[in-house]
Amino acid sequence: MRKVINLSRQFGAVLVLVLLLNQTLLAQESIGNIPSTLKWSERMALSIMKRHPQAYQIDGQTEPKWDYVHGLVLTSFEALFKHTKDQRYYNYRKQYADATIDENGSVASYKFDTYNIDMVTAGRILFNLYETTKDTRYLTVLQLLRKQIAEQPRTASGGFWHKKIYPNQMWLDGLYMGEPFYAQYTVQFENGAKLDDIAKQFELIQLHATDPKTGLLFHGWDESKQMPWADKTTGCSPNFWSRSIGWYVMALVDVLDYFPKNHPKRNELIGYLNEISNSLVKFQDPSGLWYQVTDKGGSEGNYLESSGSSMFAYAMAKGANKGYLPKKFKAIANKAFDGLTTRLIKTDSDGQIHITQACAVAGLGGNPYRDGSYLYYVNERKKDNDPKATGSFILAALELNR
């Protein structure tokens, strides 16, 4: 009997592999050459699908993994599907959800007790999937992520820790990872009851992480001021990392979608967006792009970085389109997008496009230790087609209708 069960399991595993291989081959066949006449958003999306026929493969994964980079890219695919109605973009997003969520609504690669706020943002793709399919697996995961937010450790003043292993620390990245999901959930399922709590996260960052000299935001803030990278007076990390500021401005324009016009905190958030956007313009390179370390353009080792530049282009374009920012920011975003397409995009003979000069990853503390120094940021490895760049590039292209 045991042999029969084992053979059955082995056959089932082989069948799954065969089905995945068939799906991969079909996906590759269905794309073919990518026309240069398409909008940049579709050219990038189709390039991603051609390189990674299974959505979980984004960022080089060989097996399904619940992760924030998939959340960003597939959020851009959701926006693209709404714009084009091309079913391929919906299917690609659903494919990821179904690869990572089992029949009981469990996500094997998600670890609740790490309280990693990065893991929340992928849940954004499930709101629409649940609405369109009524599949309760998606609702189960949405509720689990909401439970994480409810239990997420906080600083003494009420800010979400970035992770359990980073006590008392708020990173700019975390505002994007948690707040747009939190805002959509509370509006959709709780009548917006927690919007004040969401606004508070931005208030804390504005109050504690803003540099009075440049108006830029430091990557991290340690309320306890105990981390070796933290300034002993302010608790801030020592440098400005463009992608971290990019996460922050994207978080602002995305959460504002859920704040009613009469909400008392809405204008405050719009004010934050204007402050940081005006500060960023001062550091925009003549190419339209921004440097890896935002305020040190031209310094040795610094480089024009694609993910932060794409994020700024998206946030400024959306801010101008929604009326949060003056119209001049649409032109600033277009200049940034021109810089991306002329300097950092490469095109293959089959029409595939590649975005270059993206910082692969950066953080603070941990092991090996990351000190937040200038040399640390400029020496982290670069990566072509990093999903933090491809996803934000699609969003920027859509907002600019390029």
Structure description:
With 402 residues, the chain is mainly alpha-helical. The chain has one domain: Glycosyltransferase (Alpha/alpha barrel). 54% of the residues lie in helices and 4% in strands. The protein is built from 14 helices and 6 strands. The protein has helices at residues 2-31, 40-51, 68-84, 87-100, 124-133, 136-151, 172-189, 195-209, 242-255, 266-281, 306-322, 328-344, 374-379, 387-400; strands at 169-171, 220-222, 345-347, 353-355, 358-359, 382-383. Helix 7 runs parallel beside helix 9 (242-255), helix 8 (195-209) runs parallel beside helix 10 and helix 9 (242-255) packs parallel to helix 11. The longest helix has 30 residues, at 2-31. The N and C termini lie far apart (62 Å). Pfam families: Glyco_hydro_88. InterPro entries: 6-hairpin_glycosidase_sf, 6hp_glycosidase-like_sf, Glyco_hydro_88, PolySaccharide_Degr_Enz. One of its GO terms (molecular function) is hydrolase activity.
Layout of helices and strands:
Blueprint (H helix, E strand, L loop, with lengths): L1 H30 L8 H12 L16 H17 L2 H14 L23 H10 L2 H16 L17 E3 H18 L5 H15 L10 E3 L19 H14 L10 H16 L24 H17 L5 H17 E3 L5 E3 L2 E2 L14 H6 L2 E2 L3 H14 L2
Antiparallel strand pairs: 1-2, 3-4, 5-6
GO molecular function: hydrolase activity
InterPro entries: 6-hairpin_glycosidase_sf, 6hp_glycosidase-like_sf, Glyco_hydro_88, PolySaccharide_Degr_Enz
Pfam families: Glyco_hydro_88
